[in-house]
Design brief:
Layout (H helix, E strand, L loop, with lengths): L1 H19 L3 H27 L3 H6 L1 H16 L4 E5 L8 H5 L6 H7 L15 H5 L5 E5 L2 H6 L2
Antiparallel strand pairs: 1-2
Helix pairs in contact: 1-2
Length: 151
């Protein structure tokens, strides 16, 4: 929300600068607010408590938009893809370590649970599928009637 607020402030600054002259003070506020605090200081400080990828998981407007769209697609029955696992998992933890959104993929793989955007923050990057040395994970298409009842 703060990133959205600062981005809107930058937009206002640009519009004001177009018509009213330079507004260098707003750029300094943006640099302090976003570049220093949201991207540098807070993620390093909160890493022991919230884990890695703090910007991506909590503040990135694009990641939030993708999460909202994924949830909407599930409710509308449009989303038909999910990640399945088989029984060959050796718990090497490569999938979880390389997940771009910080999901504990290996716990799903060990239980052979399905991962999609309705039961986790998975938005289908697929790095976990390609990095798995045992080919445990795979993208699967849900049948049409199951996708329609997912919402």
């Amino acid at each position: 929300m703060l990133a959205t607020l600062f981005t809107l402030l930058m937009l206002v600054r640009d519009v004001y600068g177009l018509f009213g002259g330079a507004a260098d003070w707003s750029m300094a506020i943006y640099r302090i607010g976003v570049d220093v605090w949201l991207i540098s200081i807070l993620p390093v400080t909160l890493y022991p408590f919230l884990g890695g990828k703090i910007w991506c998981r909590y503040w990135c407007p694009l990641a939030k938009l993708m999460d909202l769209m994924s949830n909407l697609y599930v409710k509308l029955g449009i989303s038909r893809y999910h990640i399945e696992s088989n029984d060959k998992c050796i718990s090497c933890n490569e999938c979880s370590r390389n997940c771009l959104v910080g999901i504990d993929v290996v716990s799903y793989a060990m239980k052979q649970d399905v991962r999609d955007n309705s039961n986790s923050s998975c938005i289908g990057y697929g790095v976990c599928v390609t990095i798995c040395p045992m080919d445990v994970l795979s993208f699967e298409a849900k049948p049409k009637q199951q996708a329609a009842t997912a919402g």
